[in-house]
Amino acid sequence: SNGGGAVFDLIPCRRLPGYTEAIRHPTVVDFGAAAQTFGLPFRRCLDHHQLAEALAGARAGAGVSLVEVVVPPESLAREVGTLFLGMLRGSVRGPAVKASTAGVIGS
Question: How far apart are CA 72 and CA 90, in angstroms?
Fold first, then answer.
């Protein structure tokens, strides 16, 4: 959860006056209430330790769980490159990926 609308931080409109109020328009979503509505276990995580505990609990449980990870609103724009390269490295294997990411993510 990043307060909503962070995907728009990736395009040039983020530099416009009034961007935050008109386009980014931060919102508050109560994921705990949503989980309760569907009878799902719910954990809200503010740090890595809480996330590790929540994921371990979700894996140990039966059925679906909802885990909310709270991150700073600007974190998507700041970390998207690292996130993308990490996903690419973790999901695709082979010489082409290794060559294209060499020196970028410590291949």
Answer: 24
Instruction: Tell me the mean pLDDT in the region 74-86.
Output: 82
Q: What share of the chain is helix, strand, coil (3-state, %, to 5)?
A: 55, 5, 35
How many Å apart are CA 102 and CA 88, to the nearest integer? 12
Query: CA-to-CA distance for 27 and 24, rounded, in angstroms?
Result: 9
C-alpha radius of gyration, the chain, whole number: 18
For residues 76 and 69, the answer to whether their CB atoms sit within 8 Å is: no
Task: Tell whether pTM > 0.90.
Answer: no
CA separation, residue 35 to residues 23, 25, 75, 99 (Å): 27, 24, 25, 43
Q: How many other β-carbons are positioned within 10 Å of the β-carbon of residue 24?
A: 19
